[in-house]
Amino acid sequence: MGEAEVVELGRKTLESALWVAAPLLIVATAVSLAINVLQVLTSLQENTLAAVPRLAAVAAAIFVLLPWMVRRMAWFTVGLLVDFRPYLK
Q1: pLDDT tens per residue across span 20-32
Q2: How far apart are CA 31 and CA 23, in angstroms?
Q3: I need a labelling partner for 74 at 20 to 30 A (CA). Which of 4, 10, 41, 49 fits?
């Protein structure tokens, strides 16, 4: 397997991982931003107040997005394994 194939495989793997993780990261960032604004406005600096809603939002996003995430990973895996000849060189 040549250097170009290794780079291409790495690029596709990172791209797929980014597509799967991006929605969860966006949800966590949006909830964190909203909670931080609320904490600044109310002067409540409690760590639990920030962590629990963020965890709950990410858990809800995982629950909703899990079928899409599994399909996306399955497409990547099937696409990788359907033509395995380039990786045998």
Answers
A1: 999 999 999 999 9
A2: 12
A3: 4
